[in-house]
Design goal:
Helix content: 10-25%
Number of domains: 2
Shape: elongated
Strand content: 25-35%
Radius of gyration: 20 Å
Strand order of the largest sheet: 4-3-5-6-10-7-8-9
CATH architecture of the largest domain: Ribbon
Number of helices: 4
Order of helices and strands: HHHEEEEHEEEEEE
């Protein structure tokens, strides 16, 4: 790539390899840890330098959000139609994928970068991520420690949702049968169905799972 320093080339290759393996960008903190930078500001400095050189393009209106230019001509700066758009969303706490529990944090505790095409976002500005705790969704291939990206919207029958049931939060499959009250179903035969006593409120629908390898 034209005029890149050795470190900029390494960062770009790390991002591209991570995206190829996982379908989404590494987080700013993962880049920081990979290259032993003292702060995330150093990462952003390199990303802005790559932006100035035409390697990355910032997504308008999206803070800390870029996509990669992959020109056919190595000396030209072009944006291909299939360019990857990556969105930076907040991680707001943990959610029980077991018996209902309270979310550990009501505020942002980190950031996560996700390829919006792979995640299937329709309202990415409001989306957020939660870290899974527990094993109740393993048959849906959602495991303890995974990050689940949540889109706030109305749930349909069969959606996996972040739900508030009787003042406790959990991640389960939403079941709504005609003429019957909705309830939550685990994807693990060792966990019971959850029928609300007083309240069932859907906080959002799971759109993507992010897993560290």
């Amino acid at each position: 790539m034209k005029d890149l320093t050795a470190r900029q080339q390494e960062i770009l290759e790390f991002i591209e390899h991570h995206e190829w393996r996982n379908g989404f960008w590494p987080s700013i903190r993962e880049i920081q840890e990979r290259f032993d930078f003292r702060s995330t500001n150093a990462v952003m400095g390199h990303l802005r330098a790559l932006e100035r050189k035409g390697v990355l393009e910032r997504i308008p209106g999206q803070a800390r959000t870029f996509r990669i230019n992959r020109p056919d001509d190595p000396d030209a700066v072009q944006m291909p139609e299939d360019a990857t758009e990556v969105v930076d969303i907040p991680v707001v706490g943990a959610i029980a994928a077991g018996y209902p529990d309270r979310v550990e944090s009501g505020g942002e505790i980190g950031r996560l970068q996700v390829d919006i095409a792979s995640a299937g976002f329709s309202s990415r500005r409001r989306s957020f991520a939660l870290q899974v705790r527990g094993e109740s969704m393993v048959d849906a291939e959602i495991y303890d420690g995974d990050m689940v990206v949540i889109e706030p919207r109305e749930a349909k029958d069969g959606d996996i949702v972040a739900a508030l049931i009787d003042q406790e939060t959990t991640l389960k499959r939403y079941i709504q049968k005609p003429g019957e009250p909705p309830y939550l179903k685990a994807e693990n035969k060792f966990y019971p169905e959850l029928h609300p006593v007083n309240e069932l409120s859907i906080q959002g629908v799971a759109k993507a799972v992010v897993r560290s390898l």
